[in-house]
Write a structure and sequence with these properties.
alpha+beta; Thiol Ester Dehydrase, Chain A; elongated; MCH/BMMD; MaoC-like_dom
Length: 157
């Protein structure tokens, strides 16, 4: 069987309209165990060279069991593109407009993180709509290490 291939029709999941999105839908990212390589790469990209992130002795002097993974690195694990959320939005996506976050527990190399985005609010605004997701990251012990929200602007027509 032969068919014409069109890369514009290549989708990870079916695209949905704003009206097809539902409160409570959860979009999970794959779990990831943090390594020294992850921490070093983030330190290089962020230019954050504070010793709390890499010096074991320094971290222990200030009451930490081990160097603390950068909070912004933990936040990066909530990137919507790590889930199927932006693929679900597809062509109606306009922008990632805002985020807020609370860092609740330390994260260390060797921890496994489980990020998720859950649709918490859908607000129509004429020909556009705002989607707000509750964002969480748990560790391998089931502890909530990060919570917050992301907001996205979508087309509704």
């Amino acid at each position: 069987m032969t068919f014409a291939f069109d890369p514009r029709e290549w989708h990870m999941v079916p695209e949905r309209s704003f009206g097809e999105l539902k409160l409570g839908e959860t979009f999970r990212a794959p779990s990831r165990t943090l390594t020294d390589a992850h921490a070093s790469a983030f330190q290089t990209v962020s230019c954050d060279n504070h010793p709390i992130h890499y010096d074991i002795g320094y971290a222990k002097r200030f009451g930490h069991a081990a160097p603390v993974v950068h909070g912004l690195q933990v936040l990066a694990f909530t990137a919507p593109g790590a889930t199927l959320l932006p693929h679900t939005f597809g062509s109606i996506f306009i922008a990632f407009t805002e985020l807020s976050v609370k860092f609740l527990k330390e994260v260390h190399v060797g921890d496994t993180l489980y990020p998720a985005l859950e649709i918490a609010a859908l607000e129509r605004m004429g020909d556009k709509g705002k989607v707000t997701t509750d964002v969480t990251v748990h560790n391998q012990n089931g502890e909530l290490v990060l919570s917050g929200q992301h907001s996205y602007l979508l087309r509704t027509t």
